[in-house]
Design goal:
This protein is an all-alpha fold and about 190 residues long. The protein is built from 9 helices and no strands. The radius of gyration is 19 Å and the shape is globular.
Length: about 190
């Protein structure tokens, strides 16, 4: 009986440590909190259903992200065949960035403003650039893991990441008052 309880506890905790990261990625993909929550939930349900097929040496975090991306792509394909709905109120912003507790109130305020500016700039990028920035910079996945999730070569990941960073520098330069290196901006 105690072994059954332990197995039940292990099954219910499977992948919970990735939920916040998945939610952040879902926000990047959907740009809508409600849709992001639904996407995370569907991802988790699918992962639990397919858990038995997972190999012992699998990268579980990458596997969750791949499931989410495939679900999102399927939803996009389905939307293209369905009539489009227009949202009147606009979409909600990205995930909130929580400041560290050891900073002064001024540093916290500046940090929140900087994070907001970065979120706005990331939101202006195309989906392919938003995804690669999110997976690399926020989730700290390796190029190989990102290539696996996006189902593309590592070189493509590196190229997209470089172009996304260049576009972000260009978008953020006026806000932060820093000049953009014209050579870098010309390549973006």
């Amino acid at each position: 009986m105690s072994q059954e309880i332990a197995e039940c506890d292990e099954a219910s905790a499977f992948g919970l440590e990735y939920l916040d990261a998945l939610y952040g990625y879902a926000l990047v993909l959907t740009r809508n909190r409600t849709e992001a929550e639904d996407l995370v939930q569907e991802t988790y349900v699918r992962a639990l259903q397919a858990r038995e097929r997972l190999r012992n040496d699998s990268n579980i975090k990458g596997w969750f992200f791949a499931i989410m991306r495939n679900l999102w792509l399927n939803q996009l394909r389905k939307r293209k065949s369905n009539p489009a709905l227009v949202e009147v109120d606009g979409q909600e912003g990205g995930a909130d960035y929580l400041p560290a507790n050891d900073r002064s109130s001024h540093e916290i305020l500046i940090g929140k403003e900087d994070a907001r500016q970065v979120q706005i700039a990331i939101g202006q990028l195309s989906t392919e650039f938003r995804e690669v920035i999110m997976l690399r910079e926020l989730e700290e996945l390796s190029y190989q893991q990102i290539a696996s999730i996006l189902d593309c070569p590592i070189g493509t990941v590196m190229s997209r990441l470089g172009r996304a960073r260049a576009k972000l520098r260009t978008l953020l330069a006026p806000t932060w008052g820093k000049p953009v290196d014209s050579g870098k901006a010309a390549r973006s």
